[in-house]
Structure formats: structure tokens, C-alpha cells
Amino acid sequence: IKHGRVAMLATMGYITPELTGKFPGYLSPSMGLKFSDIPNGLAAISKVPGAGWVQIVLYALFCESTGGFGYNSDGQMSDPGNCGWRPPLLATEDKDLRRKRLNAELANGRLAMMAIIGMFFQDGLTGSAW
């Protein structure tokens, strides 16, 4: 479930700057690097400063280490997809409805994993994800 959620966010993050534009302002004021100077897709990897990559890696490690590695704070295994946060309008006590929603999320996550890998492959092959 977690990797599917990350893939869904990555897919939207790959597409959104092309459709809506980028943040105004500077990514790195000390280097004079604006958000608009960063290209979309795989070309952005070489443009982001090293300190930015350190921040990205540290944040990813923080997210992984505080996620409990599948366990609740009391040491008991948690339910799949239960991260301790109940989103309004989506959370339910009905077990059948919850199972249906988690299965839909799992299917959409798998689709997003294929989508982001396909966009990475096409971008690496042609230089454009579209």
C-alpha cells in the first residue's frame, strides 16, 4: 500500500508541473536557481543542488523510520493501509467497505507504479515523458 501511495504521488508530481506550472521564487537563493529553471522529468536530477538531494534523502529516511515498519506504537502488527490517520469522508467502520476501498487503492497503486516506470523509461529514451 505504501509504495502504491508513493507511486501515485510520483505520477502526479511528474505530470502536474507540465500542466499547472512551477512555484514562483528560488529553489536555491545562494545559487540563484529558480524553480522555473529546473526542467521536468529526469533532466531535473542533474540540476538540483547536492544540498537539495541531502534534504530529500533525509526526509525519505525520516518518513520510513517513523512509519513503524508495519507495527503500531504498542508493538502489535497494524492493519494493512492503516497509518494511524483517518482521512475525513474516506474512513469507515464498515469492514467490507474498507476492504473494497483498500483493494481499489491497491489496484490504483499498482497502475501508478507502472505509469511512473513507463514515464521514466520514455523520458530516458526520448528526453520527454509525453
Tell me about this structure:
The protein has 130 residues and is mainly alpha-helical. 52% of the residues lie in helices and 4% in strands. Strands 1-2 form a two-stranded antiparallel sheet. A hairpin with a 4-residue loop joins strand 1 and strand 2. Helix 1 crosses helix 3. It starts with a helix and ends with a helix.
Q: Any key phrases for this structure?
A:
130 residues, globular, 52% helix, 3 helices, 2 strands, mainly alpha
Biggest sheet strand order reads 1-2
Termini Cα gap: 27 Å
SSE order, as H and E?
HEEHH
Determine the number of helices (DSSP H or I, runs of at least 4 residues).
3
**Major sheet, described briefly?**
2 strands, antiparallel
- Our Rg estimate from Cα atoms comes to 18 Å
Mean model confidence by pLDDT = 84
What percent strand? under 5%
Low-confidence stretches: none
Relative helix content: 40-55%
Query: Which of globular, elongated, flat, extended, rod-shaped describes the shape?
Result: globular
Total E-strand runs: 2
Would you tell me the structural class of the helices and strands?
mainly alpha
Brief write-up:
The chain contains three helices and two strands, in the order H-E-E-H-H.
